[in-house]
Amino acid sequence: MKIHKRANRSSIEYVSPKLLATAIGVSESSLKRWTDEGRLEAERTAGGHRRIAVGEAVRFVRNAGLRVIRPELLGLARASGTSHAQDDRETATERLLAALESDGAAEARSLIVSLYMEGASPGWICDVPIRQALERIGELWEHGAGGIFLEHRATETCLQALGELRLILPAPPGDAPVALGGGSEGEVYVLPSLMAATVVAEAGFEVRNLGADTPTVALLEAIRHYEPQLVWISYSVPPRNPREAVTGLARLADALNGGSLVVGGRGSDGLPLPWSPAVHRIETMSELAAFARGLSAPGGRG
Fold first, then answer.
1. Of 115, 157, 181, 198, which has the highest C-beta tally within 10 A?
2. What does pTM read for this prediction?
3. 14-74 in CATH: which number?
4. The domain 86-167: what is its CATH number?
């Protein structure tokens, strides 16, 4: 039986036209004109006042190519003065790496959210600045416990940043298909599944992230409960028992009843996936986003 409630979103769910106008540096009259023209969707309160959902505000800002000059008014982290212009996207990895190495958690969170606000896709953010910065920090493992400490701290900061990013994604429509997933059994890394949840949510799904170390039996129960259109499973390291892992994937594919199962992560590279039209190997988060978008588009559901 498909039973689910809308996931909790940002603590700041709505803003007034005046507050949004201040946040993006335009006049309130301009903002009201955009709502009258239908470019920006606004609701009316019981008292007749306009209010704008934060997710809708973010969508409008991205589509219009505007800049948020007062992100704190939208409940977003504010940077310490660093420019995050789209022209500087090629330096995003270096800037994120510098913030992570210097324990600049607020700066790192602001950078990741600002990249999204200025048009970067969640898939690109995960594939390029986050992945590359963490790989560079991961190289410090070779130098002892200090490298482990830095990597764990950097990973936690990226988790927080993606959590903040998810809160400002536009809410999925009421009839949105469900997607769920998690890390494979024995998987200790939380970040890959959160990345997947973020890009799939941005593609228009109602998402349930089950986190790391999710046994097959738990995924099967979640499939029965939610009847998802899409299930993901990540392997950061190869499974301890490949034959058992393949059997588990086959059970998941059979349970989906028309849905799709995507498998990714460097630990799955040598894993022979079960033959099934429901099973797909995904190499990057951008590829996952494109696949999910195709499923959620009209006519894309099985």
1. 181
2. 0.83
3. 1.10.1660.10
4. 1.10.1240
Query: What are the pLDDT tens digits along the chain (302 aa)?
Result: 444 444 444 456 788 989 999 988 999 999 889 998 999 999 888 888 889 988 888 888 888 888 888 877 877 765 554 444 555 677 999 999 999 999 999 999 989 988 998 889 999 999 999 999 999 998 876 667 677 889 999 999 999 999 989 988 888 888 999 999 999 999 999 999 999 999 999 999 999 999 999 999 999 999 999 999 999 999 999 999 999 999 999 999 999 989 999 999 999 998 999 989 999 999 999 999 999 999 977 666 54
Helix (H) / strand (E) containing 153: helix 145-167
Q: What is d(CA 124, CA 113) in angstroms, rounded to the nearest whole number?
A: 12
Indicate the DSSP class of residue 39. S
Bridge partners (DSSP) of residue 43 are: 51
Domain ranges of the chain: 14-74, 86-167, 178-296
CATH topology assigned to domain 178-296: Rossmann fold (3.40.50)
Directed axis angle between helix 145-167 and helix 105-117, to 10°?
40
